[in-house]
Amino acid sequence: MKVLVTGGAGFIGSHVSEALLGRGDEIVIIDNFNDFYNPANKRRNIEDIKINPHAVVVEGDICDQKLLNSLFEKNKFDAVIHLAARAGVRPSIEDPLLYEKVNIGGTYLLFNTMRQYGVKQIVLASSSSVYGNQTKVPFAESDCVDFPISPYAATKKACEEIAYTYNKIAGIKSVCLRFFTVYGERGRPDMAPWLFVESVLKNKKIKVFGDGTAKRDYTYVGDIVEGILSALGKVGEFEYEVINLGNNNPVILKDFIETVERVTGVKANKEILPQQLGDVFQTHADIKKAQTLLGYQPKVSLEEGLNNFLIWYKKNFI
Ligand SMILES: NC(=O)c1ccc[n+]([C@@H]2O[C@H](COP(=O)([O-])OP(=O)(O)OC[C@H]3O[C@@H](n4cnc5c(N)ncnc54)[C@H](O)[C@@H]3O)[C@@H](O)[C@H]2O)c1
User: Are the beta carbons of 206 and 271 closer than 8 angstroms?
Assistant: First the structure.
């Protein structure tokens, strides 16, 4: 099949793109290589993809309607995987309108272009952050998500609503995947797995926000990619679904740091700081819906996944 991958040069997007190429699909990537983190990382992510004859990489913005038109004019897409977004909770507090423009505005333009060109299937990235500071665990798709605590989370909830709307007005079938703290090779430099591993290897202090009891349901990128591909295969059977892709095994920050210490063999030097605004206290995915609808089953333990990340990090950055 021919798939448009938005944000295909990013962390998750580059892994998904490789997996699609690996199974014989054709892909077109649109990515604007913005400087949310070092664009050189994104260029490195797609070095192999760029030279694959079944891949086209377009450097551009999903908010550019003319560019979207020309991509949909030139290519008959069977489906879209929409991962392009401004990610990150804390920066969204500083620049909410940028998050609105890209995550909401860009998603509207993409769906409207799909409507105009008759493309009927999309898998898109939502986020565990939509659950806000919910205390009931694990987080299930049927839970109320009316209380996001960051602009980023609010934009991700809006993306789900846009997907619902375009199912109603244009018959576009969608699966919104709520990813839970994804980590692994090519991970994002703004996220804890990268920051902590980098800091301990360089003997720098790691910044620990809060009392160390916050919990995250860390999910290995390879498991996420399997979930995305499964959703792509099944999206035609659904109208509109929201599905958690997590690990169903939350880890408290203190234990996470101990795992980093074990994997790297280096003792962490911690700097304790107050809890950050916008950060939720815990995430914990109920993955029953993903298991039932997608046959999803995360396989990679935190220790194994962090070790894979460490090997990749050392190869590329040390
Ligand atoms: N990594 C996680 O833990 C996590 C968790 C929940 C949700 N998500 C979502 O998954 C998706 C992928 O996240 P990621 O971690 O791979 O982040 P990432 O920043 O590595 O990837 C996003 C990519 O989108 C591109 N992009 C951003 N704005 C764009 C625009 N206007 N036009 C074209 N391209 C643009 C970026 O250059 C980047 O390559 C995002 O939608 C993110 O919100 C990620």
Answer: yes
d(CA 310, CA 193): 10
Does the model's pTM come out above 0.70?
yes
Question: Tell me: the pLDDT tens digits for 72-81?
Answer: 999 999 999 9
Domains of the chain: 2-183+219-246+284-298 (3.40.50.720)
Computed over its alpha carbons, how large is the radius of gyration of the chain?
A: 19
* Residue nearest (by alpha carbon) to ligand 1 atom 39: 10
Which residues, judged by CB distance below 6 Å to any ligand atom, belong to the binding site of ligand 1?
A: 7, 9-13, 30-34, 36, 42, 61-63, 83-87, 102, 106, 125, 127, 179, 181-182, 188
The string of pLDDT tens digits covering residues 232-278 is 999 999 999 999 999 999 999 999 999 999 999 999 999 999 988 88
Closest residue (by CA) to atom 38 of ligand 1?
10
Residues forming the active site: 152
